[in-house]
Amino acid sequence: xxxxxxxxxxxxxxxxxxxxxxxxxxxxxxxxxxxxxxxxxxxxxxxxxxxxxxxxxxxxxxxxxxxxxxxxxxxxxxxxxxxxxxxxxxxxxxxxxxxxxxxxxxxxxxxxxx
Length: 114
What we know:
Number of helices: 5
CATH architecture: Orthogonal Bundle
Radius of gyration: 26 Å
Structural class: mainly alpha
Low-confidence stretches: none
Number of domains: 1
Strand content: under 5%
Order of helices and strands: HHHHH
Distance between the termini: 85 Å
Largest sheet: none
Helix content: over 70%
Number of strands: 0
Shape: rod-shaped
CATH topology: c-terminal domain of poly(a) binding protein
Mean pLDDT: 93
């Protein structure tokens, strides 16, 4: 059986790894052993942070809605409760956008549920 040399695949694998580690600090950008661990950890953090981003944005929506509703004389929890009892099904993302960019419409919604 003939001998198989795997030089090209080995080099391709390392080149791909170093391409992923581009822009990292110190030896993690050009030393294979350090680059490998850096890329693995970066992938793990990016996965977790994609989930964390959703939590952070939901918190921001709460803050934006609460800030607007307080000016109208309600609290966030009472506002959300009144929305549910009046069967107005707008999600927090839309409500936060309305409270920041379209204050007239949001004021109308608040007045309707009072």
